[in-house]
Design brief:
2 helices, six-stranded antiparallel β-sheet, alpha+beta, globular, 30% strand, single chain
């Protein structure tokens, strides 16, 4: 069994779907992700270090932005937000889009 420590290694994601992002606060990020994904629902699918399942979007983004949890937040419509593990400098943040 292979354990993944970092998702930002090129072998794990298809590079053409990855769009690097700068830091945004929870409210700004939520507004941006709703616009990009077309998601008007408050529920998202959260895949993190300590929890996998459905969460309210604000709760999921709070976990990745304010609590620095490494996670993928799937918004639907082929759009997800990824916040990676911080090794040095700012953590990797990507918008993952497959449409």
């Amino acid at each position: 069994m292979v354990m993944m420590k970092n998702f930002d290694v090129p072998n794990y994601f298809i590079q053409e779907y990855m769009h690097q992002m700068e830091y945004m606060g929870v409210e700004e990020l939520e507004k941006y992700l709703r616009k990009v994904s077309g998601n008007s629902d408050d529920k998202v699918y959260f895949m993190g270090e300590t929890y996998i399942g459905s969460l309210m979007m604000e709760d999921a983004l709070t976990r990745v932005v304010l609590e620095s949890e490494t996670a993928i937040v799937y918004l639907g419509n082929g759009v997800a937000y990824y916040r990676g593990e911080q090794m040095f400098g700012p953590p990797p943040r990507f918008l993952l889009i497959k449409k």
